Amino acid sequence: MNKIYQIYQVSDSTGETLDRIFLALKAQFSDFKCKTIHYSFTRTKNQIDNIIAKSKQEKNVIILYTIVDSDLAQYLILETRKNNIPSFEVLGNLISEFSKLLKQEASRIPSGQHALDKEYYKRIEAIQFTISHDDGKIINDLDKSDVILVGISRTSKTPTSIYLANRGYKVANIPIISNKNLPEKLIESSKKTFVVGLVCDATRLLDVRRNRIQSMHENRPSEYTNEKDILNELKSSRKIFEKYNWPIIDVTRKSVEETAASIIKTLDILNSR
To answer: Is the pLDDT of residue 231 over 90?
Structure first.
């Protein structure tokens, strides 16, 4: 089997459920080569039109989707049929349908996605890399990262990094500390590596920091929980992100999953260019 399939994962949310289902599905076929492209937070017809337009430019596209809005889901179905693009709602009989499409018999192995394959070891390697590169611990090999997260304290850098690592991405995160310059290695690496700046609402950040101090019984400078100082920290961090043209994600109203999905989506777009 020489075909390389383009798997478009279209979701109206983070796409986490869809991704897990696809991993389980993929494990059923030993000779299935594919590239996965994520389209998270797809909630308009215009977004679907863009996805269809993109898929028409590619070969061997298969669309998997989870869309709650029945009208929007029906629109996607009609557009894929019109353009002869195979599409499957994840609650359908995916294994049987894929078996027909790929002309392969499914192995029917329970929990086949947990096999110790290359992807498994890649994920373990990513987790090890990410843990060792948390909070700026190691910076000499930042260029080996898939993603570098930068932000002031308590902007969800570590949980987002770990979540991405569990998806197979090597992530480093670098804290922005007042009156300290960013590492030169970060500036150098940002020319080749995807860097994202994380920010948060000052009031929300104040609450998170206060709760952190109380729960961990930490001793911190008074500036750490001073709203005016936090506003200055955020302002300075935004200036840095804008200076180097790094994309900015506001994590205030986002779960870690949503933040990670936004990062993956942007990374997929950059990699497809």
So the answer is: yes
Mean pLDDT, the chain, integer: 90
As a whole number of angstroms, the distance between CA 263 and CA 168 comes to 13
CA-to-CA distance for 252 and 201, rounded, in angstroms?
Answer: 6
118-271 classified as CATH 3.40.50.10840: no
Residue with tokens 């898929």: 55
Phi/psi for 40 (5° steps) reads -85, 160
What's the CATH code, domain 4-114?
3.40.50.2300
Tens of pLDDT, residue by residue over 77-111, are: 999 999 999 999 886 567 677 888 888 887 766 55
Question: Residue 236 and residue 238: Cα distance in Å, rounded?
Answer: 5
β strands within the chain, DSSP E: 4-11, 33-39, 61-66, 87-89, 147-151, 171-175, 194-199, 248-250
DSSP 8-class letter at 182: P
Kindly list the distances between the CA atom of residue 192 and the CA atoms of 38, 92, 122, 174, in Å, as whole numbers in the listed order: 22, 41, 21, 16
Say if residues 47 and 102 touch (Cβ distance below 8 Å). Answer: no
Q: Give which of 171, 94, 176 is closest to 129, Cα–Cα.
A: 171
Same fold, 4-114 and 118-271: yes
Residue carrying the six token digits 């987790």: 127
- Residue holding tokens 């992530």? 171
Give dist(CA 136, CA 175) in Å, integer.
Answer: 7
